[in-house]
Known about the structure:
The structure holds two protein chains of two kinds. Chain A is of the alpha+beta class. Helices cover 22% and strands 15% of the residues of chain A. The mean pLDDT of chain A is 89. The mean pLDDT of chain B is 92. Chain B is built from one helix and eight strands, in the order αββββββββ. The radius of gyration of chain B is 16 Å and the shape is globular. The longest helix of chain B has 8 residues, at 15-22. Chain B folds into two domains: 8-58, no CATH class; 59-132, CATH 2.40.50. Chain B is mostly beta strands. Chain B is 6% helix and 40% strand. Residues 31, 33-34, 36, 45, 47-48, 50 of chain B line the site of zinc ion.
Amino acid sequence: MPTRRPGTRPNASRSWTNTASTRSCSTPTSLRLFDFCLETDGACAVVVTSTERARDLRQSPAVIRAVAQASIPNPQPGIQFPTLFRESITSLPATAVARTLYARAGLGPADIDVAQIYDCFSITVLLQLEDWGFCKKGEGGPFVASGEIGLGGSLPINTGGGHLSEGYIHGMNHIVEGVRQIRGTSTSQVAGAETCLVTATPLPPGSALILTADR
Amino acid sequence: MTRRPLPVTDDLDTGGFFEAVARGELVVRRCDGCDAVLHMPRAYCATCGSWEGRWQPVAATGTVYSWTVVEHQVHPAFPVPYTVVLVKLDDVPGTRLVGHLPGRPALRPGQAMAADFEDVDGTVLPRWRTADVSPAPAP
Ligand SMILES: [Zn+2]
């Protein structure tokens, strides 16, 4: 969703609904200007400590429920975007990350209240929504178009604006926004959010974590 | 027009590909240890650890795996629009090569493609075209 974060006004006009009106960079996949993430200088920091210690601090903790990482099969050194040899260009390592992370967390897609999905390009969001089981393979487009990823939808995503609207801080801003959702301090807060999925780089390896409220 | 950027053709890993292309032939790298196709071509096999391999000639024909039309100008030597096509080799279907087609040709997945070979400022490169266009003679 377009960012509501203060200090990010120049990008606030970026949204899924007005992307179609921006200039085309490629067809027939129709990647347009707003389908590409912003180039941004910036920084984020997260403090990781034990849950016990975190309970003593001034801010309420966001608990790291589980983390996972996976790669595409047969990765090769130095090959960042293996479109020339990976089995299918519409499958990401997210499929394997999801399987492992859900198993470690003891949770499934239906348990996720809000998600921060790595969005270097809009297309990587569509593919990951499918890989993470929020919709069927091939149905990422209709899922997004029907409003399911908005604040009133079944899975609000990228509530800080993400890389497409807030800024490209290499996934770190997604983690920070995940923490805000769990604390209830997001500028696009999902009411009662207690679980937040945060995903990172789609290729060639990918990783993700699930944050939960301390309960 | 600006000169086209050209690949390094004497690299240890990929030099054999360009040597073959200069002869008007397409090749893939195969490992002698485990027979795996090494694509992208490499001297070393990450599967079995062998440094021994060979260049296997393959037909310069394939089918369209996917494509995209570039509308955003990136390099002055490649005026837009042009089409980047991923070609699945007929002889080694798991292996894809990249082709550059001018304009916005009508393509469909699985469409037949064939490569001929063009000399660009002294460097020979494969040139993929839809197969209904008869290829030019090899240099
Ligand atoms: Zn081998």
